[in-house]
Structures are given as C-alpha cells and as structure tokens.
Amino acid sequence: MSRKQRIINRELSWLSFNHRVLQESIDPMVPLIERIRFLGIFSNNLDEFFKVRVATIKRMIDVQYGKRRVEGIKPHVLMGKIQRKVINLQNKFETAFHKIVGELEKHSIFIINEKELNPGQEIFLKKYFRENVMPVLTPIMLHNIDEFPYLKDRSIYLGIKLSSTAKKVKDEFALIEIPTENLPRFIELPSDEPRKFIILLEDTIRFSLEDIFSIFNFDTFEAWTVKMTRDAELDLDNDVSQSFLEKMSKGVLGRKTGQPVRFVYDNSIAKDLLDFIIDRVGLDDENNLIPGGRYHNFKDFMSFPSIGGSELQFSQMPPVPHPAIIGHKSIFAVMKQKDFMVHVPYQDFNVFISLLQEASIDPNVKEISITIYRVARNSKVINALMNACRNGKKVNVVIELQARFDEEANIYWSRKLEEVGATIYFGIPNLKVHAKLLSIVRVEGYARKNYACISTGNFHEGNAEVYSDLILFTSDSRLTNEVKRVFEFFEHTYRNQTYKHLVASPLYMRRRFYKLIDNEIKNAKAGKKAYIILKINNLVDRNIINKLYAANNAGVKITLNIRGVCSLVPGVPGMSENIEAISIVDRFLEHSRIMIFCNNGDELFYISSADWMTRNLDRRIEIACPIYDKNIQQEIRDLMEIQQKDNTKARIIDVEQNNDYVVNNSKVSVRSQYKLYDYYKDKLNHR
Are 613 and 650 in contact (CB under 8 A)? Predict the structure, then answer.
C-alpha cells in the first residue's frame, strides 16, 4: 500500500458514514416510519456536510487553487470525488424513498401528490390553501425583476414555468418559497378508513397554481423544487470596539448570506427554467449542481407524523431508573458515598437535572459552575441554573458561542443568564470550549466539599433521548478538585493550571495519549500483553493514526469502534493487521468516547469529550477523565464487550468503505443497543 493510502480522506470517510445512516432506511428490521425518518437524518447530515466541509474545500479552491492537498488529494479533484459520491448516494436515496412509499401503501398509508386527490380531498385542500397557505405566500415573477431573488439556505422553492396555448402569450418563470417556517410540511387529508393520506405542502401549492396566478392568461402550470445550500462559516470582523457577543451576533446574521456550495434541483425540471436559474444566480459546475427527485429538504422527514399502527415505529424504551438513586432523597448523599455513572439514553438523564435542581435550593451549596455547548430549546438545565441565581448561589457559566448552528440559541441563553446574575464566560480566543463539566461547591460542617459531573456529551435533555453518552457523578477529590481548577482557569486565564488526573487539551491531551500508546508498544516489545480498546466518534488526526500504526507493528492488539469518520485503514498486512474497526449505527446515536489501555494487566479507563481529531487535541478545550471506581470500570468493560459482539448493526470499516455488515458464526443475534438496554434493566432488578 502506498503512503497516500495510509490515510482515508476525511470527507470521503464522512460520506461513507452517512451511507451507513442511509442503510438504516432500507433495513427491513427498522420499522417503516423510522426508516423514512432516517432519510431525514441522512438529508440533514448532508446539508451540514455541504455547509461546513464542502464550503471549506470550495474556499481552498477559490483562494489557493491547486496549491494545497487534503489528505493527498488536490481540492478540485476532491470536489469531483465528493460530487460523484453524493450523486451516487442521492440515487440510492431516491430508490429508498420510493420503496418506502410503496411499503407504506401496503399499510394503507398513502403519500399522494396534487394529481391523485379525490373530489373530497380537493375540496378540503382548496379550503386549507385559501385559509392557511395563500396568506403567507410571496410569488415572484422572474422576468419582471433586474436581480434574481436571494435563495436562502435551509429553504426550498418552487421554480414555476407558466405557459399558454395561445401563441401571443409568452412563457413566464416564477419563484415561490415554500413556507415551512409558518406551516407544517406534511398535511393529513381526510381519511377513507382504514386508508390514511398525506400530502406535502409544496404539492398543496402545486395544486393551487392556477389560483395563485389567476390574473394572468396562462393555462399551463408546471413546478419543480429547487434548493440552495450555503457556506455556514461565520465571518467575524476585528472591530475592537465590539464585544465578542456582538461580533457573534453580527456573524450569525451574516451566515444567512453565505456563498453557494450546492444547488439541488428536480431532475425533471424544464431545461430552459434550469438554465435561466443557473445563469441568473451565477452558478457553475464547481457549485455542486446536484440533480435530485421531486422533493428536497428531506430533513423535515425527521418529523414525519406518527401515523398507522405501533408496529411502524420503534417500540418504547423508557429510560431505566438508576439503581444508585432509588430510595434516596438527596443525590449529594449518594455521591458522597460512591461514584456512579449514568449511561443515557438507557438510563435517565433526569438524574442530572435533579442534581442541579437540588443544588439550586440547597442552602449548603455556595457555587455552581458549568460548561454549556448545546442545550435544549426549553432547557431544564438553564432553568435550574437561573433558579440557583435567584436563590443566591454564585453561578458561573462557560458558554461556547461558536457551537456551530447553535450560536443564536447560546447568545440568547447567555443574555438570559446574565439578567438573573450569573457570571458568563465566553471561553478562550481561538479555542472552542468543548469539555462537558459541572462543578458544585457545598459547605459540609466547617469544610467546603467539591462535587462534579464529567460527561462525554452535552447537558441537553433532548439529545439525551437519542444520544448515547456517559455522565460520571463523583465526589472523588482527585477529580473534583481538578474540575474546579478548570473553572478557575476560565476566571483567571493568565494562571497556568496543571492536572495530575484529568487529561486536558490543548496542552496535555495529545502528549498523554502518545505516552499511553507508547507504554503499550513497550509492553508488546517486551512480550507482555498489550492492547488498546477505543470507542470514539471520529479518528482523523494523522499523527495519532501513525502512532497507532506503530503500535500495530509492535504487536499491540487494537480494537476500534468508530461511529463516524475513520481515516485509519485497518487490516492491512505490515501496517494494520492487528487493528479491527467497526461502526455501529442504530436507533440511538453512538456518541460516548471511551479509551481502555491494557497497561500490563492493570487496565486504565478514560471517558472523554474529545474525538481523536486535530481540532480536539490542539484547538479545543477538552477533558478526558480517568475512571478509578472498580464497579464503573467493570460497567465500561461490559458495555464495550457487548458492542464488540454486535452482529446486527455493526459495519466493518475498511479501505473499500463498502459498509458491509459484521457477520460471525454465532447462532445468537446480538443487537448491542437493545442488549445494553436489557443490561441496565438487569442491573436495576439485581440492585
């Protein structure tokens, strides 16, 4: 294998991950309504990919065409590879969608268009359109304006061709934005039991085009969906008179006018209309012109209505109560006795909410400090922090204003928290704060005792329903004192902080993990048992990948569980034959980061907020936390073994990136997420 093939390109590996998401939409094991929602997840992922990653490559082409390479590939060559792979996935997507529509019909659920309405449905839709849709439409006649309308990101439009059988009437083009911010995308029509019918908002508008353009002499109306994706990078100016909050607010507004990075259109669109739009908008082949199907913005399908029988959706898996909490009124009392770990969504995130709520009213709690990267829309976390302020607690909140696509929400919450007296920190210039930490200072007797939560994911009750994450609840002073020290660093950034137990980036994390890998290499060369077990979202950093290759060559057994991007190439003789890699995509998003090092039989366990990407190791504030409690170590070992035995939803990661499912000779089917749910139910029953 050549040197260039030692690293799989990050963008192409990400597209391979999104292919795994798309595979869920065709898996007959996945209930039908959930399959159509996976199409929405796939589409939403692809939107963000173009807005961030493809936009970055396009800027490289515009500024340094041909001078830089991305993992050995010139930017314009990479753009071509991306476009070809995206078109291939788009074709698979269209096939999957039409197959799902056909299968829904077998369950008496029909997604129909404007040409398939019966007379009763036509009457209903005419009334619905007149009362709800027409008042919020803004049709634009394109031949009558000098400048083509701005096509907004996240919006879809109908490009309309108006014509007449009368020769004297010239064809006209028009544009209508689909008002999905004002109205639901899916409209349930009067049913004909047991049959149920759904029509999309854009087809409702297609049905009424004659009414919209009734003042003209056209008798033929054709409409096709188009969509623009724009660069999501924030442009922050250097005006020293503005606060960082003001700059971020201005930058978020500026994002809405970002440069085009993808134009998707219905592949049946009239050529003259398509050419007109492309010419007037100023697009070319480098803007990723992607032919698609009738419908775009499939991200809305993530909220496809719950319709039909219960067998069409995932069975309920309510969070399991944590056995350590049952029978206790105070979570502080439990934490004082022993550390424990909550694994969401299998276990209840409300344990964290309850801790914050208890802290907000406990007269012995004097100080609460927390990092915020993303929070829920109606956040119970924020509500508890505001209540703590009202109860006279000192509340310190480190809010990351540059959490991509959550900037507006974080700006809003920072202002709300300031209003009730919280002290807000916006992190460190040029370093995103991605660590997930909570520190609570409580007076007990004549001493101040520190409590802490250290998480692999955001303190976000919405995410906690679908994201698989670990939250350590601890009163171990080795950890809690250093968590407190992290927050002291945000308050006094000029003070140099050192950590004996926590592993912090950007100063120490890369060095510590190098040292841990080197220790396994040393042990392997000495003939001792040596292995590394790693579960993360993304493995991208070239230097750490080369370090893993070196460990492989020394005989270290490396087991990888990588949900998303994996730039390492496993299973290559002479380079990575001792490395196995899988990826699990199922109903929950695998998000926890876990590292286990053999350490000559005295295993070392870490959980972390950081993936092994250059940005996480060198350009973000991240925390990896050692796990000292033996019971929690065993729990982590159990969950890793369960996932490694997955022969239902695990895919093989290799250089071909075909996403073949893991197949083994076991007669027992193991679907690890369901197995883990049963595992935590058993722990509760045997407490």
Answer: no
Confidence of residue 406 (pLDDT cuts 50, 70, 90): low
Q: Report residue 283's pLDDT band, with 50, 70 and 90 as the boundaries.
A: confident
Phi-psi region of 601 (alpha: psi -120 to 50; beta: other; left: phi over 0): left
Q: How far apart are CA 473 and CA 451, in angstroms?
A: 8
**Distance from chain centroid for Cα 93:** 19
Rounded-to-integer distance, Cα 563 and Cα 21, Å:
10
The answer to whether residues 346 and 680 touch, using CB atoms and an 8 Å cutoff, is yes
More confident residue, 413 or 285: 413
Is pLDDT above 80 for 33? yes
Q: Among this protein's residues, is 19 annotated catalytic?
A: no
| 236 φψ region: left (φ > 0), alpha (ψ -120 to 50), beta (else) | beta
Query: d(Cα 279, Cα 526) in Å, to the nearest integer?
Result: 67
At residue 573 the predicted structure's pLDDT band, cuts being 50, 70 and 90, is very high
- Residue in the block written with tokens 């404007």: 114
**Residue of 296, 322, 434, 460 marked catalytic:** 434
Structural domains in the chain, CATH included, are: 1-107 (1.20.58.310), 119-302 (3.30.1840.10), 331-500 (3.30.870.10), 504-685 (3.30.870.10)
Count CB neighbours of 146 within 10 A.
4
- Residue in this structure with the two tokens 């490396």, named with its chain if needed: 558
Tell me the pairing of strands 140-141 and 195-200. unpaired
Could you tell me which residue, 538 or 282, shows the higher pLDDT?
A: 538
Across the range 298-306, mean pLDDT stands at: 91
CA dist., res. 119 & res. 117, Å (int) = 7
